[in-house]
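chain below, 244 aa
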Amino acid sequence: MRCLSTALISSVLLSGCASPPQDPSGTWINQAAIDDAVERGNLREALLAYGPNLEWQIDGQRRLASFSNGFERGEGTFERDKTGPLRVHFYGDFQELLSLSNGELIQAQSDTWPEQRFVRAPAVPGALAPPGSSFEQALYGAYLGGTWLIKEGLGEGGLVLFQADGSVQGLPGAERYALCLAGDCAAMSGEFDSLWLQLGDQGQNWLFERKDDELRVFEALNSSQIDEMPNFYKGQQRWLLQQR
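prediction:
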């Protein structure tokens, strides 16, 4: 009887020490892509190297998981494997495996994607925030954040502020901006990085180069025919900005 009691107590103690599975609920962003873009300057190359997925949103209660790659969104349902990873099922009969390790969400290598790693978004997105907005805000703040001086171009000598929410102050002819992450804008820009500048309801594409503390913005000229998808190449430099 004493042996049985000891065994029961040991069992309770061991079960009490067992760690429950971590809750993956929340928003996770591809910080490695952001860090590489900031360090090297080339946004397109960073997204190709560490993407293509930029953000995951996981709802543990409803067992829903969705990803954004800057152009499209995929949503699936998940189940937890006995070993711990989440097996996410998507329409079209394909799956992804997600696991938590040292504070990171790891998307396992598959026939579709390479292994990718994500960290929790620094801020909880609003209820109406579109998919991918947490990654965008983190990227915008890190990649273009701070104060820029117009060294050459319209408004020379003025200061420019690119905000994480996509607004811009001090750049003549623009009040909103968006960096091209994927999709048609990437296809049209080829090897170049591109951004959209908008004032009111009017806007246009621009090409840019970022190196160290300098940002050069060029006109985006189109080499395609009128009935073809645009194919942009660099035209005249419009601005040279220097980060202060």
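Residues 1-18 have pLDDT under 50 and may be disordered. Residues 22-121 form one domain.
thats it, cya
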